[in-house]
């Protein structure tokens, strides 16, 4: 059977990691604009008081804002029929709560969307890929304030109305379940914004994993995102009934480290809390039973979940389920084991897997396993993988070539696993690799952590002319798409 006709092949980026032009044409400050760079061993740091001597990678990123025509033409050369990108909320409403949208921001995305159509690509737009206006954090404390629900819906409907005849596929919040990945750091800063005022007003560099947070506020903020997402789905379907509006989950597949029943139960609970909870709310339209137990046992007051909210969640379920997949982790009750890093997660090291330069365990079989699990959990919901890729150090040879066989070696078995899952009957509709062009790493703020098929001459010391060049993987992915996933050699 193989990949179906019309399967969506492409790549995915985020505005804060690729666009640059951070205050150009009326854009307002956003949370990622306060993040400094890091490296493989140093946590990314947060500095809310702008320091003219500091290096903020997102301020220029890889300058997609001025190179989008060139970049989209290169994507088209690979044969893409879908391009996943995000709209930066701060380009449309610079402060998040402005009365009127910024026309220059709307026009920029008009131009990007038109360029996609010119090259035969469907835009797949993420409305919130961690790009929260800074004013929403400082004035409202992020999504902890229910007023931000209406502000987000206003922003989303502005985009829906503007692009209703140009865009079919939408995602509400990127990796919404990051709130469940830990009490601070990324889950605190990106998207939820319930930082301690001391952090918000700090003039010191603070590692992300040291940002303060409050579990009660975290779950309240997450709930408000659920409601905002559901209201956005409802509004989108009223504006254009043909819209396909999805969620997006950071999926980290978990296995028990041993056959010990306690490890098996621990892995099951981990999977429910970190992977399934948010998907259950957005696909099924209600909080799962295991979360009510979690709230009770962890002292979370759930009075913020109103009967009206429950009705909204039921009425605003998503049309398709999308997720990122980079690696798997093992779970054990034994504390004395070697640990492995991951996409905002840490787990026990799996002795059967190799790892990337950043310690992420590489597990293509886990992708097929994950697709089968999700199909069983949500049997009538189309699935799409919207992030998958390998961050690695790339070397430019003297002749300008970049031989990234390791990236091809990572992607090849993952695509093969997708084909096997389709043979299993999984309704997989598309695949967008993460970082098809080099960009700023969200986790570390590095340029050196490269994912792309397209190399960008930009480096962690701020040097580079932003010129683009094709890696070996560029030509390989082009061949994969031309064969609709059949030719992986």
Automatic annotation (TrEMBL):
Keywords: Glycosidase, Hydrolase. It comes from Massilimicrobiota timonensis. The lineage of its organism: Bacteria, Bacillati, Bacillota, Erysipelotrichia, Erysipelotrichales. Belongs to the glycosyl hydrolase 1 family. This is Glycoside hydrolase family 1 protein. One of its GO terms (molecular function) is hydrolase activity, acting on glycosyl bonds. Its EC number is 3.2.1.-.
